[in-house]
Specification:
Length: about 140
């Protein structure tokens, strides 16, 4: 099972290409503007997919749980000025998980990665991944 998952993940990683022709996607959320990037996911041999996605990595949903906020309930992230750069992954949380063995880790790990269809559609499903659980919205 794990080998199958790793195989399909590696297919996705190897088949991604950035879409250079378009302006980067910018969306407005409660805290301000976020800028992501668009990439093309193309896998034609096994699952026959050729799609574009807008990806926003590392969008903070709470203040970092450090200092006085350690061991407290999450505090919503305050607003920011300008455009938040959501083009690189944030640090992973400290946990006993072989999948995160080689990732950069930090206590400041309260971030979301958002994957949205491109072009935008009126009716679609979104998947929110949160600590080994999937939620369909």
């Amino acid at each position: 099972m794990l080998k199958t998952v790793v195989f399909f993940l590696s297919l996705g990683i190897l088949s991604q290409t950035l879409a250079q022709d378009e302006d980067p996607p910018i969306r407005e959320i409660e805290q301000g503007l976020v800028q992501g990037f668009t990439y093309r996911f193309r896998e034609l041999r096994f699952i026959d997919i050729d799609k574009y996605l807008d990806i926003f990595y590392g969008i903070p949903f709470a203040e970092p749980p450090v200092g006085d906020l350690r061991w407290q309930k999450p505090v919503p992230k305050s607003e920011w000025d300008g455009i938040y750069n959501a083009t690189s992954r944030s640090a992973a949380c400290f946990q006993e998980n072989p999948a995160t063995l080689y990732l950069r880790k930090s206590e400041d790990c309260l971030y979301l990665n958002v994957y949205a269809p491109n072009p935008k559609v009126n009716c679609s499903y979104y998947i929110l991944y949160r600590h080994n659980k999937y939620y369909f919205i």
